[in-house]
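Schema walkthrough. Field components (list of strings):
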Amino acid sequence: MAIDKVDHIWMNGKLVRWDDAKIHVMSHVVHYGSGVFEGMRAYETPKGAAAFRLPEHVTRLFDSAKIYRMEIPYTPPQISEAILETIRVNKLQSCYVRPVVYRGYGSIGVNPAGCPIDVAIAAFPWGKYLGPEALEQGVAVRVASWTRMAPNTFPALAKSAANYMNSQLIKMEAIADGYAEGIALDARGLVSEGSGENLFLVRGGVIYTPPMADSVLLGITRSSVLALAADLGIPVREESIPREMLYIADEVFMTGSAAEVTPISSVDRIPIGKGARGPVTRRLQEAFFDVIEGRRPDTHKWLTPVYEGVAVAGRAGK
Ligand code: PMP
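Field assembly_structure (string):
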């Protein structure tokens, strides 16, 4: 997916032109994957552009950094403001935001002492991750032959660059075999997550999703869906899921900042339910899009206005 580039990227406290936002090839991150990052969206609402769950994304960025003993040389409020500034300076409305924290250029050994902690934030227009039809029709997925990182190998709760080497194996295998996405099992063979999404299934009116210890990232869309399910009075169980539950579920769907709430129509070519988006998925999608697009009151306080009190006209989002 080509990036629709914009004017500026925030790098270590300065706004630099997109084409000049470069790092040295000897940076620690290039060799050892030593980076953590976030992926979040801002949406166009009737009250103007709003960042979705900004504090939660910033908190997760700091948590990921802490796990890897990286000290971010800014405070969470400074990073939040830098994210908003990056959206504003590029005059974006609806967009995707990618803050990255990485070990930079300094020394070459595995021990990162001597390498700076660098921070960059990019914001750019980005449409539907799995294509616009995916949200209505659902996507075909396979169970990956690759296992998600075992506990005590790579920490799944950290959103680290290195974890996405595993995600790439899952994603490339799925695409090569004609699927939109792969679902990874954990080291015990229980359902974990997609290459970049959390997984949910519905059976008998109950929603199931794998718990924190089953090698998942604690997704912010996942937590939003759990809150919306509670609002709608739909029972939820966070518990381990055996692979075969996927095949006999009434509905399966994935969540993520990029994928939003995407139905799954088949797993390993076995149709799920009627092989199309199910009613619970649809209700949750509607509730989710109503909040983020400002059609229903933001009772959970998930939206942070981007341009409030700032006299800059935003350009049309994509
Ligand atoms: N799991 C993985 C591996 C991911 O990359 C993502 C996307 N960040 C998610 C789950 C979903 O997390 P979120 O809803 O916070 O985007």
